[in-house]
Amino acid sequence: MEPIRQADAAAFAQGGAPLANAMIDESGMRVGFDRRRGRAAGINPSGRYEPISRHVFDDGWSTLEELPPFKTEVQVEKPRTIITRNSSPDISFDRSINPYRGCEHGCVYCFARPTHAYMGMSPGLDFESKLFAKPDAARLLERELAKPGYEPRTIAIGTNTDPYQPVERQWRIMREVLEVLEAHDHPVGVVTKSALVTRDIDILGRMAEKGLAKVALSITTLDRKLARTMEPRAATPPKRLEALRTLSDAGIPASVMIGPVIPGLTDQEVERILESAHAAGAREAGYIILRLPLEVSPIFKDWLLRHYPDRYRHVISLIRSMRGGKDYDAEWGKRMKGAGPYAWQIGRRFEIAAKRLGLNAEKQRLRSDLFKKPGGGAEQLMLL
Fold first, then answer.
1. Of 291, 304, 330, 364, which shows the fewest CB atoms inside 10 Å?
2. Torsion of CA 116, 121, 126, 130, to 10 degrees
3. Cα(101)–Cα(259) distance, rounded to whole angstroms?
4. Residues 6+ apart with CB under 8 A from 364
5. Beta bridge partners of 216
6. Is the pLDDT of residue 17 over 90?
7. What is the pLDDT of residues 284-294, one digit of tens each?
C-alpha cells in the first residue's frame, strides 16, 4: 500500500489545506515540524528487517509525550575491512570506501538510505541524524593495500555517502584516508556535494600532479530554495561551483555530476548546470536519473507532496514512465539512465549540451603504475 495516496496528492493540488507541521508514513504516524527542523525526510518508518514496528496515535486524552528534536548523533563503527568491492557492469569502478554510514546532508532522494535498515534503524530521519563513523579507516586501508596480490585500481569515495559531510570537520577520517593513498601513490576519485573538499586541496593537488586524483562535484539544482529543502545540509549550489573553480585552479581535474536529474522538477536545468560548471572549470560531466529503491520511494513522495503538491502527479508519472510503470527498476543498464522517450530526451539534451561546451572531449584516466605497496621495503630491511 502506498504511504501517500493519489487522493492526498489531488487534494493538495486542488488547494486543500496541508496537514500542519506533519507528515505521513506507512503507519499513519506523523513527525512534527519542530522535531525535524533542518532535515529533509519527514518520516521515520521502522527498518524493513525489524520484527516489530512502533505506531504513534492520539487516543483523545491529549497525553502524547513531547519528543525531542532529531539531533545528529555519531557512533563509532569498527569494520573488519574498509574497501568495498562490486562487480556491477554499469558503473566505472570496482572498489570504494565509505568513511561514514548515513549522511547528515540529508538529501531526500539519496539511494543509500535503505542501507540504514541493516543497522536496525530507519532510512528516514535516522539516516540523516544517526551516523556511524569509521575512525580506523586509514589503518584498515593501509593493511588492505599491503595484502599479497593486491592490484591497484582507482578507489571511488563518495559514491554511497558523502565523505565531506559536516561531521568530517571534527572526525577528519577522509583526510586520513587521503594521506594513506598519497603515501602509496594510489589513484582516487572523489564525489561530493560539499565545499569542504577544498580543505584537502594540498593533498589532492600533489596527487593530481602525478595523475592520481580527480574530483566531481554533484549539483542537482541551481535553485537555492529548492536545494535548501531537498538537500538541507549540503553546500549551496554557488558554493559547489566555487569549489569547482578552486579545484580547477589548483590543477585538480574537476567534473560535475548532475545527480540526480528529477523529471518534472529539475530536468529543465540540465543545460544551465553544465554551462555554470564549465564556466567554473569543469571539463568532464555526467548525470543519473532519480532512483527510488525500497524506502526511498515513500520518503521522496512525502517530501514532494509537502513542498510541491501541485507537481506531485506529474513528477511521479514521469518517473514511472522511465521505470516501466514502477517507481524504480533496478535492471543493470537502465537503473542509472532510465528508459523510454522522456529518459531518451534527457540523455540527448545532456549529450548535445556537453558536446557544445567541449565537456568529456578528453577523459582523465588515473594512473595505477606508481603504486607502492605499504611496508614492502621496511619489512625486507628488518630481515637483514
1. 330
2. -80
3. 19
4. 211, 214, 253, 284
5. 191, 255
6. no
7. 999 999 999 99
The size of the chain, in residues, is 384
* φ, ψ (nearest 5 deg) of residue 157: -130, 125
pTM of the predicted protein model: 0.87
Cα 86–Cα 190–Cα 91 angle in degrees, nearest 5: 35
- Contact between 277 and 241 (Cβ < 8 Å): yes
Amino acid letter, residue 3: P
Please give the sequence-ordered ranges of beta strands (E in DSSP) within the chain, or none if there are none.
Answer: 73-76, 83-85, 95-97, 100-101, 130-133, 155-157, 188-192, 213-218, 254-261, 284-289
Least confident of 49-58, 186-195, 281-290: 49-58
Q: How far is CA 336 from CA 69, 228, 295, 369, 373, in A?
A: 35, 24, 18, 31, 35
- Tens digit of each residue's pLDDT (9 = 90 or more) over 148-173: 999 999 999 999 999 999 999 999 99
Within 113-267, residue ranges assigned H as helices are 125-129, 137-145, 168-171, 173-183, 201-209, 224-230, 237-249
> pLDDT tens digits, residue range 299-314?
999 999 999 999 999 9
Q: Are strands 254-261 and 73-76 parallel, antiparallel or unpaired?
A: unpaired
Q: Which helix (H) or strand (E) holds 271?
A: helix 270-279
CB-CB contact of 296 with 112 (8 Å): no
- Across the chain, mean pLDDT equals 89
Among candidates 119, 12, 36, which has minimal Cα distance to 299? 36
pLDDT digits (tens, 9 = 90+) for 108-119: 999 999 999 999
Task: Look at residues 197, 270, 280 and name the one whose alpha carbon lies nearest to residue 241.
Answer: 280
